[in-house]
Amino acid sequence: MATTKHILVALVQDKPGVLNRVSSLLRRRNFNIDSIAVGHTEQPHLSRMTIIVQGDDARIEQVRKQLDKVVEVVKIVDITEDEPVSREIALVKIKATAATRSEIIQIVDVFRANIVDVSSDSLMVEITGDEDKVNSLLELLRGFGIRELARTGTIALPRGGAGPLIVEEMRVPKQPPKPPRSEAESPPDW
Fold first, then answer.
1. Do domains 4-82 and 85-151 have the same CATH topology?
2. DSSP bridge partners of 13
3. Strands 114-118 and 122-129
4. Which of the residues in the chain have pLDDT under 70?
5. Could you say which architecture CATH assigns to the domain 85-151?
6. For position 8, what pLDDT does the model report?
């Protein structure tokens, strides 16, 4: 079976130690995590974890089932086949001289990236896009000299209507109204 990149998305309880439990489980199963990103969701007390791992379908399914058993994992799905929209952000600090500054700016413009900081000897660029777009820009900027680089890792959502991680709020069942008390059961009127 072919090893492919999979996007696992988990809805987890927003509690300390959840990231450690998830990453430890993947480590024990001998998976290398390509990227992992966690952030709050629209649902209170829940976070969304996007995990990029490589493996064949059967192995990924086995790990997905194991992750589903982690108490704090509310729901986990593999959205790879859903053709999700995925993005990551990178901040790149590049060496820049008076001679190279305009060339760097032209390259940044082609990629629709933003220059977010300028100093006498460097430029800081912010790029948002899929992994290939970020990698392509980085490859072009390497020739100028990359001083520092920070990447967020991939985040993803499936296309279309309601996603597979929608969890309805847990509602406390309403108590049926109690029948009125008879006079014999009524407390005394003191």
1. yes
2. 46
3. antiparallel
4. 1, 162-190
5. 2-Layer Sandwich (3.30)
6. 93
